[in-house]
């Protein structure tokens, strides 16, 4: 018998400080013939970030600080000229001034001006995104992915990290081989008119989108009026046979939700909205605006092309998918497959993700605990008309929120919103420190019949993740190990969520259908206002934050 010497492998453990990650984003608008991501023959202006739509990947390692300089060179008069950028899902502890929400956490960045967002990522890791939070400007293209990878990559340069095959610090890393820039998928909807023109008639609830855009590209329905040559559709991959891919999927839509599936492949869900979950294998899932999922897909089918399907609701194009399946979908391509469109057909799913089946991988108890909450708010959603009958207005809770001339954060810092402030007609709700809060979200659907499409609202809370104690249509509440996320859909049923108030700041809670937000479907929690002003949780403002308002307020309306 041979004795095999045991080789002791000692892994080096390096403790390093979190890095400062510096980014520069320059915003501009397309001109000429480039503004047609779906082949529609009439170009329109698109807001570009560093000359691309969607914007470039911003990535960091867990614990890093991000310093993101935004320069506003948006010049088209057909889109909103000023801007803000929100970092969706980032808690912004002590940095609510960098949350990027117009008239809540800052005044907008005026044309030809810059502002640097500065925020830590604390213990967060996962899939996030960024988008304009001024008016309906993100519908004009200001969207992009933001990914925070695990801490073991801290020593590496960014170039190195993006080519790493997987994240060794991720507790679920053994489940996948590839997780990089090419496995991030943004799915959005698109209008052939700029947002302000598409939604000029505010008596409608929202404009209908014209096409589905995957990673910035899609195909408009060709018809007899516009016989353009087939527009190229996005390609996911090429994937290498037998490797396992972590796809990070982000819904950047202004209205549309999608049923996602890949012909002949299953998907194992491991993350929702920045929280890893116990792996759950499904063959389709629904993703609402603002939400993210990480799914692992094993390339275990014969080399070829398969449809990556993102079936939209509403049915944007009234399109028979058998006629031109490239409408709405992307190509999932294997290495070695011909450069051709797939011929695979749709198989109805047998296992669709149910939101309440997701269990957080670590710390499964809800923020705020498993017992009774300190406070419960019933938050009804209603549709009303304005006094003149000239606009539809949504209410969330006791009223609507349209922003105030002085941002909520500035009002708190100057003392005009105190801890004692009662809920007023401005729809700002003061909440205390270290409370567990349940929100019962009550939809506006007619009883006894399925909700209308526009009555399904993905609601997003800034500054927090929350537990979904009872998802829409979930038979019984789960106080023990409910899913945690930052955007939840009221979808054919009421929803109860729970969060705790350990993050002082003004946090907007709003519908992520951007058209509904523009029509007032929002409220603002002024969380522990006294602690925003002073003490260990007090806000640290980026340079130039206060000056934003003076510059913006002096602009003529067409520059705002
Ligand atoms: Cu809504």
TrEMBL record:
Predominant localisation class: secreted
Entry annotated with the keyword Oxidoreductase: yes
Q: Which residues form the signal peptide?
A: 1-18
What positions does the domain Plastocyanin-like occupy? 44-151, 182-337, 405-530
Q: Please give the Gene Ontology molecular function terms for this protein.
A: copper ion binding; hydroquinone:oxygen oxidoreductase activity
Its EC number(s): 1.10.3.2
Q: Which UniProt keywords apply?
A: Copper, Disulfide bond, Glycoprotein, Metal-binding, Oxidoreductase, Secreted, Signal
Q: Which cofactors?
A: Cu cation
Provide the catalytic activity annotation. 4 hydroquinone + O2 = 4 benzosemiquinone + 2 H2O
Q: What's this protein's name?
A: laccase
Classification of source organism: Eukaryota, Fungi, Dikarya, Basidiomycota, Agaricomycotina
């Amino acid at each position: 018998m041979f004795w095999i010497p045991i080789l002791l492998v000692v892994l080096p453990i390096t403790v390093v400080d979190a890095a400062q990650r510096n980014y520069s984003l320059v915003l501009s608008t397309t001109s000429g013939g480039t503004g047609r991501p779906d082949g529609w023959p009439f170009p329109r202006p698109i807001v570009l970030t560093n000359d691309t739509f969607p914007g470039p990947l911003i990535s960091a390692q867990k614990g890093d600080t991000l310093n993101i300089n935004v320069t506003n060179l948006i010049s088209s008069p057909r889109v909103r000229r000023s801007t803000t950028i929100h970092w969706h899902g980032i808690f912004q502890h002590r940095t609510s001034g960098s949350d990027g929400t117009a008239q809540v956490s800052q005044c907008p960045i005026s044309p030809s001006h810059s502002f640097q967002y500065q925020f830590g990522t604390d213990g967060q890791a996962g899939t996030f995104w960024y988008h304009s939070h001024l008016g309906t400007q993100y519908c004009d293209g200001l969207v992009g992915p933001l990914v925070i990878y695990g801490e073991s990559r801290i020593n590496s340069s960014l170039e190195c990290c993006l080519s790493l095959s997987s994240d060794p610090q991720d507790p679920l890393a053994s489940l996948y081989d590839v997780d990089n820039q090419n496995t991030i998928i943004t799915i959005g909807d698109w209008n052939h008119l700029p947002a302000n023109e598409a939604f000029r008639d505010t008596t409608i609830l929202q404009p209908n989108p014209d096409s589905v855009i995957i990673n910035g590209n899609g195909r408009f329905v060709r018809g007899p009026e516009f016989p353009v040559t087939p527009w190229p559709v996005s390609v996911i991959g090429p994937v290498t046979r037998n490797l396992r891919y972590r796809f990070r999927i982000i819904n950047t839509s202004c209205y549309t939700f999608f049923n996602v599936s890949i012909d002949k492949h299953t998907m194992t869900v491991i993350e929702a909205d920045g929280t890893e979950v116990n792996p759950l294998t499904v063959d389709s899932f629904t993703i609402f605006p603002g939400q993210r999922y990480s799914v692992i897909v094993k390339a275990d089918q014969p080399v070829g092309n398969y449809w990556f399907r993102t079936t939209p609701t509403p049915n944007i194009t009234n399109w028979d998918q058998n006629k031109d399946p490239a409408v709405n979908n992307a190509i999932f391509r294997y290495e070695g497959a011909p450069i051709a469109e797939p011929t695979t057909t749709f198989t109805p799913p047998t296992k669709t993700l149910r939101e309440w089946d997701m269990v957080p991988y670590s710390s499964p108890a809800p923020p705020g605990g498993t017992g009774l909450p300190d406070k419960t708010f019933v938050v009804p959603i209603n549709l009303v008309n304005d006094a003149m009958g000239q606009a539809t207005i949504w209410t969330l809770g006791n009223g609507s929120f349209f922003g105030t001339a002085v941002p909520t954060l500035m009002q708190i810092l100057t003392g005009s919103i105190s801890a004692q402030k009662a809920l007023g007609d401005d729809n700002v709700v003061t909440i205390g420190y270290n409370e567990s809060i349940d929100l019962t979200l009550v939809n506006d659907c007619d009883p006894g019949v399925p909700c209308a499409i526009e009555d399904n609202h993905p609601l997003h809370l800034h500054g927090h993740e929350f537990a979904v104690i009872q998802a829409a249509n979930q038979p019984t509440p789960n106080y023990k190990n409910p899913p945690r996320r930052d955007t939840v859909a009221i979808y054919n049923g009421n929803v109860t969520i729970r969060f705790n108030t350990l993050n002082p700041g003004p946090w907007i809670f709003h519908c992520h259908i951007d058209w509904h937000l523009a029509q007032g479907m929002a409220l603002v929690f002024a969380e522990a206002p006294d602690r925003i002003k002073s003490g260990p949780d007090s806000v640290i403002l980026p340079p130039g934050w206060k000056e934003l308002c003076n510059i913006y307020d002096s602009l003529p309306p067409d520059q705002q």
